[in-house]
Amino acid sequence: MSTPALVDRDDVRSRVDHLVDLYLTGARHDAVAEHGDDVVPLFDAMGRLLGGGKRLRAAFTYWAWRALTTDVGEAEGALRLGAALELFQAAALFHDDLMDKSDTRRGHATAHVHFARVHRAGGWPGDSAQFGLSAAVLLGDLALAGCERMLSTALEHLPERVGSPTREIFDTMRAEVTLGQYLDVLSQVRPWSDDAAEDERRARAVIRAKSARYSVEHPLSLGAASAGADEETLAGVRRFGLPLGEAFQLRDDILGVFGDPATTGKPAGDDLREGKRTVLLARALGGATPAEAALVRGLVGSPELTDEEINDLREIFVRTGALDGVEKLVDELADEAFAALDALDLEGEGATMLRALGYAAIERSA
């Protein structure tokens, strides 16, 4: 079953979308009442980004809750946790896009690019690019405020005994993503290393902090905690979520180089232009000839990379065995994850959906 079809089960997507839309409508109404129509473009930009998500994190949260709860009658808390994750994801993307200098996201201009264009079209004084950057930072902050508001309402719909552990997981996730983002930025400015194994270790550390836990492990843990799972069960959920999350990000890294722009919504080779120090890149350098390694180091990180140069880099990734090696690593991590899921000994539709969502996360094309 496709990812969209899986997320549509139990109307998870539509119910999470409804909660996000309710928040945006209310926040926009209050902001316009206080500040006038000048703030409308901020909410329009947030709505464009929030309207394009896959809702996979929200689905992981909901189905972990379903798999572990004894009372499926009241889903509002779990769904609101999913909506809070979507708002946090929006904040992370607004900030990530400007740090990466990305031009497009989900087939649309990124926020900083859009607002720079608005500035130029209006003939306003000052630096258009700086206006765009400022607007994108503030959009991210606004989405974070929405995330906190949605989290608070989620906790109001959950039993009081699960509120503290659920919030602790959410708070840990937010801090960890920020630190992981810094490690990612740091990795891109460090001098090239001659130690491919160390480069891969660093790349995987960034994956775990910035993406793996945030994309899969923490959403699963939030669902489990909100269902009242004990520490032993939560540990088992994390053993399922972390390797699955790492495999999820490794798939993303492959798509960042080999993905179809019509499907991913991002230009081909964007990760190469941004200079992302991925496991795929580390493996390529580890297996490259001196001439190939020099070419890779000379091209990766150049914003002016041509399609021909991107194809040259792709050929090196294939020829060195880097692509096959990362695909094999994805399979190994998936095996580890699903063995941990089996060990949880869950039954029913929730367990079936967690497995299906796990496969969808690592077999996706966008």
H/E element sequence = HHHHHEEHHHHHHHHHHHH
Total number of beta strands? 2
- The fold-level CATH name is Farnesyl Diphosphate Synthase
Largest sheet: 2 strands, antiparallel
Strand order of the largest sheet: 1-2
Give me the CATH superfamily: Farnesyl Diphosphate Synthase
The separation of the N and C termini measures 15 Å
Helical content band: over 70%
Shape call: globular
Query: What is the number of helical segments per DSSP (H or I, 4+ residues)?
Result: 17
CATH class membership: Mainly Alpha
User: How many discrete structural domains?
Assistant: 1
Cofactor: Mg(2+)
Pfam families: polyprenyl_synt (PF00348)
Protein name: Polyprenyl synthetase family protein
Family: Belongs to the FPP/GGPP synthase family.
What are the main properties of this structure?
single chain; 366 residues; Farnesyl Diphosphate Synthase; 17 helices; 2 strands
Walk me through the structure:
Belongs to the FPP/GGPP synthase family. Pfam families: polyprenyl_synt. This is Polyprenyl synthetase family protein. Its cofactor is Mg(2+). Strands 1-2 form a two-stranded antiparallel ribbon. 79% of the residues lie in helices and 1% in strands. The protein has 366 residues and is mainly alpha-helical. The chain is built from 17 helices and two strands. A hairpin with a 2-residue loop joins strand 1 and strand 2. The chain has one domain: Orthogonal Bundle (Farnesyl Diphosphate Synthase). Helix 5 packs parallel to helix 8. The model has no long low-confidence stretch (mean pLDDT 93).
